Amino acid sequence: MVNITHDDSSWVVDSGATCHVTSQRDFYSSYTPGNFGNVRMGNNGQLKIAGIKDICLKFDTGIELVLHNVKHVPDMRLNLISAGLLDDDGYSNNFGNGIWKLTRGSLIVARGKRCSKLYMTHPKIFKDRVNVMVNTDMTDLWHKRLGHMSEKGMSLLLERNVLPGVHDIHLKKCSHCLAGKQNRVSFKSHPPSRKESILDLVHSDVCGPMKTRTLCHAPDRPDDVATAAQPFVNIRRLFSLGRRSEYAYFRDTAGLVHNLFPTARPSELLPSEIQIVRSRSVSIKYILNNIMYSWLLLIHQKCT
Description:
The protein is an alpha+beta fold and 304 residues long. The strands form 3 sheets. A 6-stranded mixed sheet has the order 8-1-12-11-10-9. Strands 2, 3, 6, 7 and 13 form a 5-stranded mixed sheet that branches. Strands 4-5 form a two-stranded antiparallel sheet. 25% of the residues lie in helices and 21% in strands. β4 and β5 (46-48) form a beta hairpin. The protein has 2 domains: 11-125, Cathepsin D, subunit A, domain 1; 138-169 and 214-303, no CATH class.
């Protein structure tokens, strides 16, 4: 017999459970009450299911995980996450050395620790995720404006007082940054396969198709694509309008950029000017982020 001390927010990762179960009604982001039968326990006892729907969990990795069709069993003592259902959704469960790790490819989604013979995790509950807009503070907003800049880079800008509304640089875990920094899955993790002739099997990183079209999607405009190899100032040609039908796309994109950027110039010096004066050993990617910000900010000032 196992006795453990737990709170209502803790979840047990159970490889023997055939469904996700919780006793907490207020965990649900959406809920459907009704008579959904019973769940059978390990001692052949049965507990009534009072409702079913989805629960959104956010782990300390910064990743959100939505559990679908979670059964609401008021008489259940523990909250259970079915490892088998996670496998069906394309996730990988790893148990060992007192640690539970949930991954998808090379991305770590969730973690947990072993407690009294059980693997447990303590995520936060996003019960109002469907109906409530996420409140982003100024630090996170400037982090996105500057091309997901690091804390160190934003701290340098804060010292120059060019980030209005920002008083302290402490970034939350950004899911986009985590996804961008993840390593690709090694081909060694897949079953070996060899071919007799050269180039019968080619390993390659595949990306696409993309949901969002670019302005240069037409195959009859190769001159626009060639400008990508020229200096940065000519890259703007990639955003030129090739036909009148693309104006609506340009209008929507320009409106999005207009709303993201501030309505007034932060200071006498732009971030790109400050960084280049302060240090000449800044990486090319870092400078391009600031140059893009400066360029879009100047366009915004001309529009207003």
